[in-house]
From TrEMBL:
It comes from the Eukaryota. One of its GO terms (molecular function) is structural constituent of ribosome. GO terms for biological process: translation. InterPro entries: Ribosomal_eL34 (IPR008195), Ribosomal_eL34_C_sf (IPR038562). Belongs to the eukaryotic ribosomal protein eL34 family. This is 60S ribosomal protein L34-B. It comes from Cladophialophora carrionii. Pfam families: Ribosomal_L34e. GO terms for cellular component: ribonucleoprotein complex; ribosome. Gene3D superfamilies: 6.20.340.10, 6.20.370.70. Keywords: Ribonucleoprotein, Ribosomal protein.
Length: 128
């Protein structure tokens, strides 16, 4: 099969990334080129993806729950299959969502502590 010359079956005559083909044998015993669709890419986390790690290498966190499809296929897929049932579902991974929630909680706690400290300072100044 390696030495067989075959013609492309569509109008693009060049070996490009959008013109991938595979040699198949038809039931009639002939060799044909089968056009292969591009593989889809799964969505990646927007936070993990943006953070450089390991000396310049990027660690991209994939969303394992969401299927890897081509853009047009996402248009016909229902919303429950494209998202995850939590805050930032389908946009951020679970670890990053947890980090965001903890960070927001700690910032709010810090504001409360500052407010209490300021009130105690004001009371001390008022007594003097």
């Amino acid at each position: 099969m390696a030495g067989v010359r075959l013609q492309y079956r569509r109008r693009n005559p060049y070996n490009t990334s959008s013109n991938n083909v595979r040699v198949i044998k038809t039931p009639g015993g002939k060799l044909r080129l089968l056009h292969i669709k591009k593989r889809g890419t799964a969505p990646k986390c927007g936070d993990c993806d943006a953070v450089p790690r390991l000396a310049g290498l990027f660690l991209m966190m994939m969303m394992p729950q969401i299927p890897a499809l081509r853009p047009r296929a996402y248009a016909t897929t229902s919303r429950p299959q494209k998202t995850v049932q939590r805050a930032y579902g389908g946009s951020r991974c679970g670890n990053c969502v947890r980090d965001r929630i903890v960070r927001a909680f700690l910032i709010e706690e810090q504001k409360i502590v500052k407010k209490v400290l300021k009130e105690t300072e004001d009371k001390k100044r008022g007594k003097k």
